[in-house]
Design a protein that fits this description.
It holds the Pfam family Phage_int_SAM_1. By secondary structure, the protein is mostly helical. The protein has helices at residues 8-28, 37-47, 51-67, 92-102, 108-120, 124-128, 156-168, 180-194, 200-213, 218-223, 229-259, and strands at 135-138, 141-146, 149-152. The protein contains eleven helices and three strands, in the order ααααααβββααααα.
């Protein structure tokens, strides 16, 4: 490949991919002539979580197979392509920064709306549909439910705010006296103030991650997050297989190092 004009960076990238490819083969007991492609795509989608990086990884393996005279055509499209946007975990420090900015808002209803976006991934349009009667409990767990909009409320600050609203407003009243358009403008202003490039979808994904960390079944997470089964499954793979992949790589490296 060097003789064909490939850059040093590309060669280094391909070396890393092939090292990971052999970790995959060792883990499943495959060899380069006979391996399960679906398992390969799942294994690699944990580390290479954007379309571009995934395609690069498959290209490296394809070149390697060709060099080893294996006739096999790999897919260059990531699994669950429509739901393959990289999962962006939001740190505790980032949530803290956002919360501090929210608390500076004059309107308590607007504060609550922003907290609902950040902690449940509800969109401004979804929040605008909520009534006071939308807040209740299911098996003793606080929830918001209005039509297709369903969320477990697992943040204590939001639970207390919603309890106070329910005590002071009529059941048929809008849950929050703030317009979706105002929420959108405020959301983008807070993102600019915090220097964070986050979308409502990122917060929805992080809400999914919080439910998965509590070991809720995937179908329940789908129902109470508004995310598709494909997206929830992908985030679940990121949360569970990422650590496994790192452990596998470390274990295999130690084993190989000790044998040398």
């Amino acid at each position: 490949m060097a003789e064909e004009g490939y850059s040093k960076n590309t060669l280094d990238t391909y070396r890393r991919v092939l090292k990971y490819f052999h970790s995959f083969l060792d883990f499943y007991g495959f060899d380069f002539k006979n391996f399960d492609e679906e398992k390969l795509y799942s294994f690699f989608s944990v580390r290479y979580r954007t379309e571009k990086s995934f395609r690069t990884a498959m290209s490296a393996i394809q070149h390697y197979l060709k060099f080893r005279k294996v006739k096999r055509r790999l897919k260059f499209q990531p699994p669950d392509y429509g739901e393959f946007k990289e999962f962006r975990p939001i740190t505790r420090e980032e949530f803290q920064k956002l919360t501090e900015l929210v608390m500076r808002l004059r309107s308590e209803d607007l504060q609550t709306a922003m907290l609902l976006i950040f902690k449940t991934g509800l969109s401004p349009a979804e929040i605008g549909k909520l009534k006071v009667s939308s807040f209740g409990t299911f098996l003793g767990i606080p929830i918001l439910q209005e039509g297709k909009v369903k969320r477990f409320i697992i943040d204590e600050e939001i639970v207390e705010r919603l309890k106070e609203i329910k005590e002071t407003k009529l059941p048929v009243s809008p849950l929050l006296n703030t317009r979706p358009s105002t929420m959108k403008v405020t959301f983008h202003r807070i993102m600019k103030q915090s220097n964070l490039d986050l979308t409502v979808a990122d917060f929805k994904d992080n809400y999914v991650a919080e439910l998965l960390k509590r070991e809720l079944p995937l179908d329940i997470v789908v129902e109470y997050s508004g995310r598709s089964l494909e997206r929830v499954s992908y985030i679940n793979r990121v949360l569970t297989l990422k650590s496994k992949a790192d452990i596998i790589e470390d274990k295999l490296k130690k084993r190989l190092d000790s044998s040398n």
